[in-house]
Design a protein that fits this description.
With 371 residues, this protein is α+β, with helices and mostly antiparallel strands. It has 8 helices and 21 strands. Bound molecules: (6S)-5,6,7,8-tetrahydrofolate. (6S)-5,6,7,8-tetrahydrofolate binds next to strand 5.
């Protein structure tokens, strides 16, 4: 049996936008949180990339499911799950929050939205965080409700996103600061719109909470976007790697701690907040991390798709592995993300990348983001 075709079933959830995505010519899907995520539209990922940098795109990112935590102990539960100090988070604010287990291993890296003092959404990457949160809440006897509301997020990304969003939702859109959100009218309902998104140009994310309005929302944004040359899109691998945006399951798994993937700035280590994994994380910090995430620039012409990690070598010693690699048409080199062993992680360090096509590709390390 071929692995190139995905066999659909109810377990692989469609989104309320999937019909529209198919109508505008999606060329394939990935599955995230048991839900379809479009992977490509234009003839090539490179065309998608150039378009995203100059115009505006509409992305079905419904797979960014919300783990909703509400009730008297909601803030306590969320703080228990993350090393990031959330005490200063205001209602209407988003925070990128690593979630770690008792060993400080990463379980997810969601965007947290504080909807009220006693109500949070964790907009998750690809792992079943709902079950973990439920387990903690039940096990600790907390007074919270944990569920997955039927919120289906539509991202509007690219330099023209703000003008387009103003046309649809009004001038109040301009007042929404980065990683903040506001409530805007759509078809007589109030919808949450945040500034942010999984791209370097950025934009907005519409957290639509009524699936009956999904196609109407898609069609409205699509129609308003015509004068901005809108196209359907999806998280773009070239843009993501250039921006140094990490992907759970690719650059990080439970084998990694937040310190080695440059998330120390989101970790409280001074003992002022209590969370699962604090002692483990403090011990790692005291010892010093043994590897760190870096960019890898490498040659040999456009690399093949990185379906499994490629060894990064210094001489005969494996110092890391490229977990995502792609040709950058702007930098005119291959770019990759890799954890690199201590002692070898200085920018400029010469390396060789062993790609799946059998080539030994010379290159060097750099700091993130690329540029
Ligand atoms: N949007 C939403 N949910 C998501 C993603 C998203 N969940 C899964 C995945 N993407 C989470 N990963 C990231 C990684 C980085 C950022 C957002 C989501 C990001 N970080 C900012 C930065 O690096 O500059 C700032 C973080 C901060 O200040 O707290 O944007 O894309 N809804």
């Amino acid at each position: 049996m071929s692995t190139s075709g995905l066999n659909m079933s109810r377990r692989i959830r469609r989104t309320p936008y999937t019909d529209r995505v198919e109508q505008v010519g999606v060329r394939g899907f990935s599955v995230v949180n048991h839900m379809l995520l479009p992977k490509a539209f234009q003839p090539t990922v490179e065309e998608d990339y150039w378009h995203l940098r100059s115009h505006v795109q509409i992305w079905d990112v419904s797979c960014q499911r919300q783990v909703q935590i509400q009730g008297p102990h909601a803030a306590r539960l969320v703080q228990w799950m993350t090393p990031r100090d959330i005490r200063k988070c205001a209602v209407g604010q988003c925070m990128y929050v690593p979630i770690v287990d008792d060993q400080a291993g990463l379980l997810n890296d969601p965007v947290m939205l504080k909807l009220a003092e006693d109500r949070f959404w964790l907009s998750i990457a690809d792992s079943d965080l709902l079950l973990y949160a439920k387990g903690l809440a039940i096990g600790a006897g907390m007074d919270v409700r944990v569920d997955e509301p039927d919120v289906n997020t539509l991202a509007v990304q690219g330099p023209k996103a703000e003008d387009l969003m103003v046309d649809v939702f009004g001038p109040g859109i301009r007042e929404v600061r980065f990683f903040r959100f506001g409530w805007f009218d759509f078809a007589g309902t109030r919808q949450l719109i945040a500034r942010g998104g999984y791209s370097k140009p950025g934009g907005f994310e519409i957290y639509l909470d009524d699936r009956a309005l999904a196609e109407r929302l898609w069609d409205t944004v699509w129609a308003a976007g015509q004068k901005y040359q809108i196209t359907p899109g999806c998280p773009n691998i070239i843009d993501r790697v250039e921006a140094g945006l990490l992907s759970y399951g690719n650059e990080m798994t439970r084998e990694n701690n937040p310190l080695e993937i440059s998330l120390a700035k989101y970790c409280s280590l001074d003992g002022s907040v209590d969370y699962i994994g604090r002692a483990a994380l403090q011990a790692i910090a005291a010892r010093g991390v043994q590897r760190e995430i870096r960019g890898v620039l490498f040659d040999g012409g456009p690399c093949p798709p990185c379906a499994k990690p490629w060894p990064v070598m210094v001489g005969t010693h494996k110092v890391g592995q490229v977990t995502t690699g792609i040709w950058s048409p702007r930098l005119e080199r291959n770019i990759g993300l890799s954890l690199i062993e201590r002692g070898f992680w200085d920018p400029g360090q010469p390396v060789e990348v062993l790609t799946v096509d059998g080539l030994v590709r010379p290159g060097e390390l750099c700091a993130l983001p690329f540029d």
